[in-house]
Amino acid sequence: MKILVLNSGSSTLKAACYEIGVAPPGDPAAPIWEGKIEFDGADAEIRSSSHARMRLQKRVHAESRRTPTEELLSDLWSGAPPLFRSSSDISVVGHRIVHGGAFSEPTFIAPEVKDAIRHNCVFAPLHNPAGLDGIETIEKILGSVPQVAVFDTAFHTGLPGPAAVYPGPYEWLSRGIRRYGFHGINHEYCSQRASRLLGRELRSLRLVTCHLGNGCSLAAVRDGKSVDTTMGFTPLEGLMMGTRTGSIDPGILTFLMRQDHLSADQLDDLLNKKSGLAGISGLSNDMRDIVSATKAGNPRAKLAFDMFIHRLTSSIAAMVATLGDVDALVFTAGIGENSAEVRQAACSNLEFLGVRLDSSKNGQPPHDGDISSANSRVRILVVRAQEDWAIACASWNLVRSRSSQVSTATRL
């Protein structure tokens, strides 16, 4: 089964294609093809590759996203050499949708699902419209091919009330103001991957998964389910991030509104784009730049790094408190996978929990593996983020499930 995965952002579109046979393999498979579009006004930069070899790279002028998307995807069946005979070789298209509201699992896209995604645009105004646009673009390009929505919030829909409900007026809940959590596709995947790496049943594990990239969040996972997470009503809550504040005193916002007469849009820009590592360091939102400047003696970079670690370790400890104990700590995403300095600093602050890092393993961690010392009570894992693969597997499962139901109904 050939599965196309789309991750539609406000200024980018990422695509990957996987081929899965009778069942997904135990270990994640590499995509047979990858593509990306970067939109810049009416211009678009298109790139595609297969097995790390560049296939297509060009810049086009387009009035809508459909034209460059069509050109990118046509590389699959019209490129040199063509990977597919035609567009009809694609069995299903899976989409990452950031905000799924009440959806608790992947679902086939139907008119009512599109309506729900559209309704949730108010909660994710930068992300859901882009996802919806990706769905409708595929409808125009590929016609009636089955499409699947895989939601970033779905893994967290079962959060218990004390973790999900905000301590404001109870009426907030009826308006949809609650903790939704995000990065759920990767938190769920990393939990399952940790189970496999540790050779233990997922339902027996208590995990803290640390998705650390430009956006950062933690999840407390017990019995394979998210029971707490740091992001909330929006992806702004929780940890300090690349350009986002994370959690701050809300009184700061009313102060700025009164004293500086800031509008909602100005506050949104300040909190989401001018804060975090970039805002404190004055240099960059990239942890590699922060670490380099810290080693060079830059005091603001050091402050940014120390703040990041302080908030990360205090939040990990809070997740452990929710779980009652922890079996493994999982680092994933750009910073989590690649910054030995962040892992070292965070784990050294958590030794009271029995977290002990092996410095040599931490310096050169495997893509998916254990970097804890032999005497660590808590296992420390580095797991490569595989959101596209997780979406492909979810799409495969839905198509196979539907086929089985049709087959059973036919026999009956």
Molecular structure report:
With 412 residues, the chain is α/β, with parallel strands linked by helices. It has two domains: 2-151, ATPase, nucleotide binding domain (Nucleotidyltransferase, domain 5), CATH 3.30.420.40; 199-387, ATPase, nucleotide binding domain (Nucleotidyltransferase, domain 5), CATH 3.30.420. Helix content is 40%, strand content 21%. The protein contains 15 helices and 14 strands. The longest helix has 25 residues, at 299-323.
Quick rundown:
By secondary structure, this protein is an alpha/beta fold. It has helices at residues 66-78, 111-119, 128-142, 161-164, 171-174, 184-198, 251-259, 264-273, 276-281, 287-295, 299-323, 333-338, 340-348, 359-363, 387-411; strands spanning 2-8, 12-19, 33-40, 43-50, 53-61, 90-97, 107-108, 147-151, 206-212, 216-222, 225-229, 328-332, 369-370, 379-382.
**Largest beta-sheet details:** 8 strands, mixed
Name of the CATH architecture of the largest domain: 2-Layer Sandwich
Instruction: Give the percentage of residues in beta strands.
Output: 15-25%
Termini gap:
26 Å
The low-confidence parts are none
Helix content: 25-40%
Give me the secondary-structure topology:
Blueprint: E1 2-8, E2 12-19, E3 33-40, E4 43-50, E5 53-61, H1 66-78, E6 90-97, E7 107-108, H2 111-119, H3 128-142, E8 147-151, H4 161-164, H5 171-174, H6 184-198, E9 206-212, E10 216-222, E11 225-229, H7 251-259, H8 264-273, H9 276-281, H10 287-295, H11 299-323, E12 328-332, H12 333-338, H13 340-348, H14 359-363, E13 369-370, E14 379-382, H15 387-411
Parallel strand pairs: 1-6, 6-8, 9-12, 12-14
Antiparallel strand pairs: 1-2, 2-3, 3-4, 4-5, 7-8, 9-10, 10-11, 13-14
